[in-house]
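Annotated sample (chain length 117).
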Amino acid sequence: MHAFVTDYGRGRVAAIDRMWAPAGRFRWYSTGSPGQRLGQAAHRRDTLAAYFRTRARRHERIRITQLGAGYDPNRAIVNFGGKLVRSADDLPPTAAHDFKGAADCLSGAPRLIVWSM
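Output written by the structure step:
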């Protein structure tokens, strides 16, 4: 999580794209405005890097203020969630709000498969 939000804030698109599972295991990356990514668009792994590039041009940052996680051995995933604050050139200051996600542990190295904020 720390590497993702750090590299996301620094606009390191190639690095953060590698943190995500490939299309077969990827589930979704969703967010509200600005940079809304909802519905079928959120489930498209093939557009994720382009989305990250767009948000990097807006200098988007994510700051996690609260985080909890738990391992689900039946599905070999880590579910996580908490509170975060988004900031960007096109985003007025906001209060912390809920987010959730999951990482797939099947490949030996955790890969993100879900993010919703």
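Annotation: Residues 2-116 form a domain with the Nuclear Transport Factor 2; Chain: A, fold (CATH 3.10.450.50).
Annotation: The radius of gyration is 14 Å.
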